Amino acid sequence: MLYICLNKKIIMSTEPKSIKKINLDELEVCWNDMHIGLHKIKTLRDECPCATCKGETVLLKTYVPATKFDLPGKYEIKNISVVGSYAMQILWNDGHDTGIYSWSYLQSLCECTNCDKIKSRN
């Protein structure tokens, strides 16, 4: 397993071999470097990287997302698709689908025991 700690971020140089839902609350990501990552579905949704969820700045104008009410299905995955060779996109049961999780971003969200230990040291 290759871990590189750079500015308090964990970077694993690899791509996933498989992504599967292991229970109602977690995804398991098996990486080419043999790391088995665990991701809480709630964390993935709460950390959705899209502009609607996180906001964005374009040409010095900042968009701050509006406060949203939770819709039924917010934390339920309907489908996951691979985007090129660099990311995945999740379709949530409430219809939200604009978040693209790059492999490096997905790795930074890993909540397995090993990654949690490394993050807590930084």
Annotation keywords:
4 helices; NE0471 N-terminal domain-like; 122 residues; alpha+beta; 10 strands; 3-stranded antiparallel beta sheet
Structure, briefly:
This protein is an alpha+beta fold and 122 residues long.
Give a written overview of the molecule.
It is a single chain. This protein has one domain (4-121): NE0471 N-terminal domain-like (2-Layer Sandwich). The chain has 4 helices and 10 strands, in the order βββββααβββββαα. The radius of gyration is 15 Å and the shape is globular. The longest helix is centred in the last third of the chain and has 9 residues, at 113-121. Strands 3-4-5 form a 3-stranded antiparallel β-sheet. The chain is an alpha+beta fold and 122 residues long. Strand 9 and strand 10 (100-102) form a beta hairpin.
SSE inventory with pairings:
Elements: E1 4-6, E2 9-11, E3 16-21, E4 26-31, E5 36-40, H1 41-46, H2 51-54, E6 56-58, E7 61-63, E8 77-83, E9 87-92, E10 100-102, H3 103-108, H4 113-121
Antiparallel strand pairs: 1-2, 3-4, 4-5, 6-7, 8-9, 9-10
Biggest sheet details: 3 strands, antiparallel
Task: Please name the CATH topology.
Answer: NE0471 N-terminal domain-like
Strand order of the largest sheet: 3-4-5
User: Could you name the CATH class?
Assistant: Alpha Beta
Query: Any idea what the shape is?
Result: globular
Q: What integer value in Å does the Rg equal?
A: 15 Å
Q: What is the arithmetic mean of pLDDT?
A: 85
First-residue to last-residue Cα separation: 19 Å
Q: How much β-strand is present in the residues?
A: 35-45%
Second CATH tier, the architecture: 2-Layer Sandwich
**Structural class, judged by helices and strands?**
alpha+beta
List the total number of helices: 4
What are the secondary-structure elements, in order, as H or E? EEEEEHHEEEEEHH
Integer count of domains: 1
Uncertain residue segments? 1-11
| Helicity, as a percent range | 10-25%
Number of strands: 10
